[in-house]
Amino acid sequence: MDHFDYKNGILSAEDVAISEIAEAVGTPFYCYSTATIERHYQVFAEALEGLPATICYAVKANSNLAVIKTLADKGAGADVVSSGELMRALKAGVPAKKIVFSGVGKTRDELAHALKEDILQINIESEPELHVLNEVAGEMGKKAEVAFRINPDIDAHTHDKISTGRSEDKFGIEWTRIHDVITRASKLPHIKIAGLAIHIGSQLTELQPFRDAFIRLRDIVAILRADGHAMTRLDLGGGLGIPYDDARTPSPADYGKVVKEVLGDLDCDLLFEPGRLIVGNAGILVTKVVYVKEGATRRFLILDAAMNDLMRPSLYDAKHNIVAVIEPNEGANLERVDVVGPVCETGDTFATELDLPAAEAGDLLAIRSAGAYGAVMASTYNSRDLIPEVLVKKGAYSIIRERIAAETMLSYENLPNWES
Questions:
Q1: How far is CA 123 from the centre of its chain?
Q2: Biggest alpha carbon distance in the chain?
Q3: CB–CB of 108/94 below 8 Å?
Q4: DSSP states of 368-410 as a string?
Q5: Is 140 exposed, middle or buried (0-12, 13-18, 19+ CB in 10 A)?
Q6: 124 Cβ partners below 8 Å, 6+ apart?
Q7: Which of 239, 237, 219, 221 has the alpha carbon at shortest distance from 229?
Q8: Could you give the CA distance from residue 238 to residue 81 in angstroms, rounded to a whole number?
Q9: How many CA atoms, within 13 angstroms, populate the side-chain half-sphere of residue 101?
């Protein structure tokens, strides 16, 4: 469920007409619903009721300060993968002791930053990282609290580019080696072992891969405890998918049942890192039709939004529902069109052979389920603006990121001094 519905014939975000925002802000722009963000967080939290659970929102999904603060106000922590995300989480009001630092390539400076802020946990992805962290912590006179991310060699049955738990993926330490690695780590003077972490991929639409990974995790905990290693915390990552194109996906409640059945009796604190599940369907990309072009074999709707604004269709062949902002009449004739952007790439395509009500230049469209991995992955390719982000709450809206125009970006560039 989301809070983007037709009211009085116009698509609205909660109680604000999208056309009203478009007139004030200009297109394209991202629009997020506070009520949807809060509801999705609450539904996930309810699915984990009875577990010693902390929800650490995966900031990489949507790192706007206002989005993070909306979730922090509901009690969420944060999962970050860079110093920049750590700064954002702290500025948005997330307590340091609810922040987890993940990622395979954390630098010495990033590790030092995490230690300085005294965050809850650093997830170790490799032995070289472990030894660098031990050195950095020693230099700072600190002891780093860590969890070891295991690679369980489990296929998540998701898109190849967002699958992270197979043996050929770059993430984590091979599950067959984790016992030896932790045994050696326990002897390092500036490392405090809290437990294990796991994350097998993003946009999972089946529960069995989660169950398989959690069973492997449970077995590893038993082995480690038998050898005297206290495992007190498990970071279970995120990855539960959302219905982009009306496809059926598991509910948070069903996911919670799997967690309780497999791991509920381990007497461990549990961390969860949902991102897409919370914000994906809480956002839309609003765009305007620039031209309707008749090709030799196709009819094209050319939009003012492009692949640099929303990369997912180009990068992942992702499908997003696209709807008219003005509600079509019941029984309106549909036309088969390709929905494309203006960037000089054939890959700048949002949908092919899509049946939509007849559209004209100037009409507004909304690309749905764009709240995750939309604005955060945007670029300035073709020297295009970085587009605004807008947050709606009930009958009000606020611009939470201004449009960053090409003129502004040019101000950061310089000709070499030998040209002056």
A1: 18
A2: 71
A3: no
A4: -S-SSSSGGG---GGGPPBPPEEEEETTEEEEEE--B-HHHHH
A5: middle
A6: 130, 133, 146, 147, 148, 149, 173, 185
A7: 221
A8: 14
A9: 33
Q: Name 177's Cβ contacts closer than 8 Å, sequence gap at least 6.
A: none
- Per-position pLDDT tens, the chain of length 420: 789 999 999 999 999 999 999 999 999 999 999 999 999 999 999 999 999 999 999 999 999 999 999 999 999 999 999 999 999 999 999 999 999 999 999 999 999 999 999 999 999 999 999 999 999 999 999 999 999 999 887 765 554 544 555 456 556 788 788 999 999 999 999 999 999 999 988 788 899 999 999 999 999 999 999 999 999 999 999 989 998 877 789 999 999 999 999 999 999 999 999 999 999 999 999 999 999 999 889 999 999 999 999 999 999 888 999 999 999 988 888 999 999 999 999 999 999 999 999 999 999 999 999 999 999 999 999 999 999 999 999 999 999 999 999 999 999 999 998 965
Quick one: which of 294, 300, 290, 302 has its CA closest to 362?
290
User: What is the CATH topology of the domain spanning 4-32+280-410?
Assistant: Lyase, Ornithine Decarboxylase; Chain A, domain 1 (2.40.37)
Q: Residue 139 corresponds to which tokens in the numbers above?
A: 């230099």
CATH, domain range 103-272: 3.20.20.10
Cite the active site residues.
344
Q: In the chain, where are the structural domains located?
A: 4-32+280-410, 103-272
How far is residue 140 from each of residues 87, 231, 242, 392, measured CA to CA in Å? 20, 26, 42, 43
CA–CA–CA angle 256, 217, 234 (5° rounding): 65
* H/E stretch holding 290: strand 283-294
The C-alpha atoms of residue 2 and residue 165 are separated, in whole angstroms, by 30
| pTM, two decimal places | 0.94
